[in-house]
Design a protein that fits this description.
This protein is mainly beta. Helices cover about 10% and strands about 45% of the residues.
Length: about 100
């Protein structure tokens, strides 16, 4: 079961709220990880893996790095993580345009 979008299991800063959330799949080589992709008002993006007892964000992108978020098509994003790694994320049931607009507004 995925975490509730309204109550993310990772720590939000005071005054920070969830702007968007969607079921997503991070693709890395031949492996994939399902989870909840969350964007906050603090311009933090995290993928919270499905099925972990203590949830730690897999992919974290913040601030200016998040400005490099781009779409491949209507369901696939490229996210530059704070580590400098590019990650490919498939949104399941959500459109990339909504995410791009939220980040660049």
């Amino acid at each position: 079961m995925l975490p509730s979008p309204a109550l993310p299991p990772w720590q939000l800063s005071p005054g920070e709220a969830v702007v968007l959330s969607a079921n997503a799949r991070r693709k890395r080589g031949a492996s994939a990880t399902d989870g909840l992709l969350v964007l906050t008002t603090g311009m933090r993006l995290a993928l919270l893996p499905q099925g972990l007892a203590s949830v730690t964000a897999l992919l974290v992108s913040t601030g200016n790095v998040l400005g490099r978020l781009s779409s491949i098509d209507s369901s696939h994003l490229v996210v530059r993580a704070d580590t400098g790694e590019d990650a490919f994320v498939e949104l399941l049931g959500s459109d990339t345009d909504e995410w791009i607009k939220a980040v660049h507004n």
